[in-house]
Amino acid sequence: MELFPSNSKVDFMKWRKPSMVIMGLLLLISMIAFPMKGLNFALDFTGGALVELKFEKPADIEQVRKTIEEAGFVDATVQSIGADNTEVVIRLRVDKAGGNTEMMGSAVLATLQSAENPVSVMRSDFVGPQVGKELAQQGILAVLFVGVGFLAYITLRFEVKFAIAAIITTMHDVIVTTGFFSITQHEFDLNVLAGVLSVMGFSINDTIVVFDRVRENFRSVHNITPYDLLNRSINQTLSRTVITSFVAFLTVLALYLFGGGPLENMALSLMIGIVIGTVSSIFIACPLLLWLGASRTDLLPRARDTSDLERRP
What 3-state DSSP class applies to 260? Predict the structure, then answer.
């Protein structure tokens, strides 16, 4: 199935300068946001208590949040699970949670209990600050491990100029996606971290598809400039790129709409990553190849040193 004919002649490279400026601004804004605002780490990293409640009738989330704050739980995070708002998750910071999950669940239950809408505690968990610190360290190690693995794969998979362009493109997508959570102060938990790592995989996969076609065309098509060859390669892979990204986006959108509060931010990170990754494979990766001077000679095997051959008997 082809949404766009493979022999289309859309001049994508014509837009390389404005697109690179826009992508560069997104990258700059994200990098500025990290030191200024930081990430709003969830209880997975900071420690605290989680209380899951079940209401008999749909609850007003804003009213629940207001009631919790008036009771002294200023840093509480209130989220609904599902579409009917009868199940609510409340997260409390360490200083408010203490270490007694049963007492914390009882305190929250007493605060929200009413005759009009009875409520019961379904689950009450506690994550200590030490456990949160360990999870944060393990999360950082996971990012480093995956990042190093991807860098090693890209380096072995592509020639130098292709590898540099792919690495820059992938890092751009990950930083911009994470920067969104810093700017908006959405909670950053382990689910979001998993989403960011998935964005890294999606981004490099999308770039590899385009670069593979670029390499094939460099080897098979002669008497064509790199500018025109890159345009041809993007047009030939455009249908695959758009269809794959659209289907993936629809799947994650369903997760965002119906997956409930705990999966909402993860789905959000994936949606942002899919859009950024798709655009960057066209408007960042290929322009970088052009500016790095990629050509057919980069794919040719290096000639053997004739002096070595002459020394052989």
Answer: coil
Neighbouring residues of 277: CB distance < 8 A, sequence distance ≥ 6: 173, 199, 202, 203, 206, 245
To the question of pTM greater than 0.70 for the whole model, the response is yes
What are the structural domains of the chain?
12-40+132-298 (1.20.1640.10), 48-127 (3.30.70.3400)
Paired sense of beta strands 87-93 and 48-55, if any: antiparallel
How long, in residues, is the chain? 313
Burial level of 31, CB count in 10 A (0-12/13-18/19+)?
A: middle
How many Cβ atoms sit within 10 Å of the Cβ of residue 104? 24
Contact 186, 40 (CB under 8 A): yes
In whole angstroms, how far apart are CA 107 and each of 26, 86, 111? 44, 19, 6
Task: Give the distance, in angstroms, between the CA of residue 127 and the centroid of all CA atoms in the same chain.
Answer: 25
Ramachandran class of 223: left when φ > 0, alpha when ψ lies in -120 to 50, beta otherwise: left
Residue with tokens 């994470």: 178
Give the count of alpha carbons within 13 A of 45, CB side only: 16
pLDDT digits (tens, 9 = 90+) for 134-188: 766 777 777 778 778 877 887 787 788 888 898 899 889 999 999 999 999 888 8
Alpha helices in the chain (DSSP H): 16-37, 43-46, 61-70, 94-97, 101-112, 129-157, 160-184, 190-220, 226-258, 261-283, 285-291, 306-311
**284, 172 contact by CB (below 8 A):** yes
